[in-house]
Amino acid sequence: MTDGRTGGQLLADALVANGATHVFAVPGESYLDLLDGLYNQRNRLELITCRFEAGAVHMAEAHGKLTGRPGVAVVTRGPGACHAAIGVHVAQQDSTPLVLLVGQIPVSETDRETFQEVDYRRFFSPIAKWVTQIDEAARIPELMAHAFDVAVSGRPGPVVVAISEEMQKHLAAVPDIGPQAVLPAHPAPDAIPRLLKLLEAAEKPLAILGGSGWTPQGRAAIRDFLVGNDIPVAVSFRRQGLFDGTSAHYAGDLGVGADAGLVSKAKESDLILAFGTRLGEPVSQGYTLFDLAGSKPIVQVLPDQAEIGRVHRVTLGITSDVNAFAQAIAKERISPRWGAWRQAVRAAREKQAVAGTYDGPLNLAVALQQLEKVLPADTIFTTDAGNFATWPTRFMHVSEHQEFLGPTNGAMGYGVPAAIGAAITNPGRCVVCFVGDGGALMTGQELATAFHHGAAPIILVVNNGQYGTIRMYQERTYPGRVSGTQLTNPDFARFIESFGGHGEVVTATDDLVPAFQRARASGKAAIIEIRMNPDQITNRATVADLRRAAGG
Ligand SMILES: Cc1ncc(C[n+]2csc(CCOP(=O)(O)OP(=O)(O)O)c2C)c(N)n1
Ligand SMILES: [Mg+2]
Fold first, then answer.
1. pTM for the full model?
2. Tens digits of per-residue pLDDT, 91-119?
3. In whole angstroms, what is the distance from residue 122 CA to residue 125 CA?
4. Could you tell me which residues come within 8 angstroms of residue 53 by beta carbon, excluding any fewer than 6 positions away?
5. What ligand 1 atom has the least distance to the C-alpha of 464?
6. Measured in angstroms, how far is the CA atom of residue 468 from the centroid of ligand 1?
7. I need a surface site. Which of 83, 182, 230, 274 has the fewest CB within 10 A?
């Protein structure tokens, strides 16, 4: 210790000291010394070599979502940082703890617009929770520990740490610093009594679970409270993993494309219990569900007071860690008298989840419902962004011990790398990704990373030969004028076979389950390409329906 360690070593050691287990990276000459430090830590930190920085950050973000500890990604300066930006935005909008290290130019060249120079404080400030730059090796333990603390504190989010090049070579004799031990924020003493009083006065309560940071214990505790008081439970956009979808209390997801039945029940409700969720654009159905002044009684529980009542004024705001809140309220019981209301909300969910009939040999609704029956009880789902995602959301259910990871910012290219990150984080668990043909080729090359590190997610590519979501909007707005939304695709089964994986093509309803079982049995990463009728543009409408509705 007297001679000190290099900055590169101190950085690697700081990752270990703060509990990191995986580092998702695309290398660059800007952080050779950190790479060398990681070499010394190779028995404690698994270095995942990725193919694209967006992929690396999505993998790290999925790791953060699953573990509640910051996922760690490392990218190079300039172009690497630009590629990584989408993952920082996902982590911001999903409130996911993430630490992104970015190699930086030598400080002595600052402000010459030198090779690959970017000012990261300015570049990332609107999308990161905190951005810092370490220019002195001696400050690494302090600033890295703070980066990890900020990423998990209050409303979790992404922290960016630029690490200047020559600093990584300097020696410093300083001790490692680990995470700050801190007790989570608990509900104020009168919070639960006030909440129960509002509940007692309600006739039609509806809970909305969302946000990040929920532990399995927290989820179980809030379920005890909600089911014990017979309250119907919706989840916010892409948060299906927070509540057992097979439960008679599950009401569906209040997100983009939410079921009209649920939306009308949310409007009818006389008390919204918004636990852990922001009432953002997707949940509030474009800010139309509740008025901003607070005429609808809402109880909102969030770890960060600044987010409570943001946009929509609420009746009772409770600043608390969501798990601490759930534990505090789990055993509280009032005499619920809204059994009929709860059943009506559930009936709306059940009605919309009944598979319809569709033209052609493939009914994806029925195929997914068959698939649900054979999936392992601890499956982790990931999803990309696109219309294909409305099929599993509408027709499948995520059960108690399953997880669901999706980007609430609608980032295409998330699903495949998130599946790889999830599989690396939880070896042995079945990981199933839903992605469209558009999203599959945004980051599908990350499958090389899966093979390099022995991960075996199963990727369901819903192929309709187009950027279907945008085609849908196009047909509604400019019927018949198809512009920039058609795609030419590779043979997806052969695509994964070229990596050494397992490929399947599904063209008929009853083919999906056997294809999935063969994919699982192969033990390899797999793609199941599901060939869709391109005219079935949503699970409720064909192109012709949209044109008719638009008068085209
Ligand atoms: C990174 C990114 N680029 C563009 C978009 C805009 N966008 C939203 S959905 C979509 C089409 C998705 O196509 P595909 O993955 O094939 O799914 P589909 O809608 O056809 O089911 C596009 C281009 C986006 N959300 N994210
Ligand atoms: Mg498509």
1. 0.97
2. 999 999 999 999 999 999 999 999 999 99
3. 5
4. 26, 73, 75, 76, 80, 81, 83, 84, 87
5. 20
6. 7
7. 182
